[in-house]
Design brief:
The protein has about 500 residues and is of the alpha+beta class. About 25% of the residues lie in helices and about 25% in strands.
Length: about 500
């Protein structure tokens, strides 16, 4: 792998752990699926067929300890169960091994069970900061737990980037950062290079450094995805490149190589559409919903999505109650099933774009009008008009810190912001305003004070007398009509 790419690539998600449980009454090993609000635990058979339903949690020691303590404290009748932690890729095999030791107890088997058993420590029973409702913890830590704490963030570094805790909270961006996600929108930052300041838009994430400290990762915008070099041992084929550039998803599972351990990592690959980064996600972390927009998925359809392939669904119901059909596919960057649109069908494109941010999958995050444009944060009055689709006037600064002005409009269908310089905006809007007078007078029977005595149809864009003759008619006082009578 070239040096150019090793410094740029991001390692796919590390292995998660699976929670197995032994019901002491039935003496049977099962895989934990979820726990409801009443403390009742749901389990499934620990087979490879059911592996996409297993509850997965981060394997790091501190995080797992906190997670398990929360889980255990909410469990109804916890003394009826024993729990075991095993690596996700071998969960099914380990479950069979543990079951054998349960069925036929031996000193050696007891030792194996002890090695994998986990218990809640007394000191961890205290209330956890940012504790969440465990009823939603059905797949990974993504929907239920925080990977980091606010005090772990180097706020001095954030300050140097022009960001603060209050700013991130106001934009609702601190929460995804603490969960281990990238920010779901671009942020304007400034980097002091000594003699100059670099201003740019980026996505941010938190990562754990080799020394254990939490660092701020900056994901800058690339001109195009880097598909010319190997990506963790995978060489992109022409078909791979075509799929990634057209849909943002590669459409198949490939074995990536862990550059540190040499371990093979079955993963899917997508493009971060905000930054053009190449993103990989281990198949262990893929969770397919049972239903999408009213259409229940069968096992074959679920497997298609698990393999990263596109799936065409008919008969889905939109939020407005209308039926539609579209292609869906799991996106490694977004971590949920997204809608794809047919570029050749404009109607379907508009419809599926609208559906794209309204997934039934709990992991999706609705797309909203950005609060910041080119480093300029809109005030409340501007933002309310902007997100409603109105055009607003803004004063901005270019990369050399020089001011310029213009008009911006948010397009709800495409999710994009359109910018126009004052000259462009006036050239487009003012002629339309001028034609209003012509239409009102000639077609709607209304009166224009500046031309009410001209008694001629107004020309295109006309709002006042067009020549000396019309001006004289306009200034000539109107004589009241004399009543007609019979001549005597």
């Amino acid at each position: 792998m070239s040096e150019e790419t090793t410094n740029k690539q991001e390692m796919p998600e590390q292995l998660s752990d699976i929670l197995l449980v032994l019901d002491k009454e039935k003496m049977k090993i099962q895989a934990v699926k979820s726990i409801d609000e009443n403390g009742k635990m749901e389990t499934v058979e620990p087979t490879k067929k059911n592996q996409n339903q297993f509850m997965r949690v981060d394997k790091s020691g501190d995080f797992f300890s906190n997670f398990f303590s929360n889980f255990f404290s909410q469990l109804k009748n916890p003394t009826n169960f024993s729990f075991f932690k095993v690596p996700a890729p071998v969960a099914a095999e380990k479950a069979q091994e543990l079951q054998k030791h349960v069925d036929k107890p031996t000193p050696q088997g007891e030792k194996v069970l002890k090695e994998h058993e986990v218990k809640a420590e007394p000191q961890q029973d205290k209330k956890q900061e940012n504790q969440n409702n465990m009823a939603t913890a059905q797949t990974t830590t993504e929907t239920s737990e925080y990977r980091y704490k606010p005090e772990q963030i180097d706020w001095e570094t954030m300050k140097n980037l022009g960001l603060s805790k209050e700013y991130l909270e106001k934009r609702n961006l601190l929460d995804p950062l603490l969960r281990g996600y990238k920010t779901n929108e671009l942020l304007p930052i400034g980097i002091n290079l000594g003699g100059s300041i670099l201003r740019t838009d980026t996505r941010l994430s938190l990562q754990q450094g080799e020394d254990g400290n939490v660092i701020v990762a900056i994901h800058g915008i690339k001109r195009e995805p880097n598909l010319h070099f190997e990506f963790f041992g995978h060489k992109f084929t022409d078909e791979d490149k075509k799929n990634l550039l057209e849909t943002g998803n590669m459409g198949r599972v490939v074995n990536l190589v862990n550059s540190k351990t040499g371990e093979l990592m079955p993963s899917i690959i997508s493009i971060d559409r905000l930054t053009n980064d190449v993103i990989a996600l281990r198949t262990d972390f893929i969770k397919i919903p049972d239903e999408i927009k009213g259409v229940k998925l069968n096992e074959e359809q679920k497997q298609t999505l698990m393999e990263g392939k596109p799936l065409y669904l008919e008969g889905m119901i939109s939020t407005k109650g209308t039926e539609f059909s579209a292609t869906v596919q799991f996106n490694a960057d977004k971590r949920y099933v997204e809608f794809l649109f047919d570029r050749s069908n404009n109607n379907q494109q508009a419809q599926t774009n609208q559906q794209n941010t309204q997934q039934s999958n709990q992991q999706s995050q609705p797309q909203e009008a950005p609060r910041t444009f080119r480093g300029k944060e809109l005030d409340d009055e501007q933002y309310n008009k902007f997100k409603a689709g109105q055009t607003i006037y803004v004063e901005l600064k270019d990369k050399k810190d020089q001011p310029y002005k213009g008009y911006i409009t948010f397009d709800k269908d495409t999710g994009k912001t359109n910018f126009e310089f004052p000259g462009q905006y006036k050239a487009r809007v003012e002629p339309a305003e001028a034609h209003k007078t012509q239409t009102a007078v000639n077609s709607e029977g209304k009166t224009n004070e500046a031309t009410k005595n001209v008694q001629e149809p107004l020309k295109s864009g006309q709002q006042r007398p067009k020549n000396k003759q019309q001006q004289e008619k306009q200034e000539q006082p109107k004589v009241a009509a004399q009543p007609k009578g019979r001549k005597l």
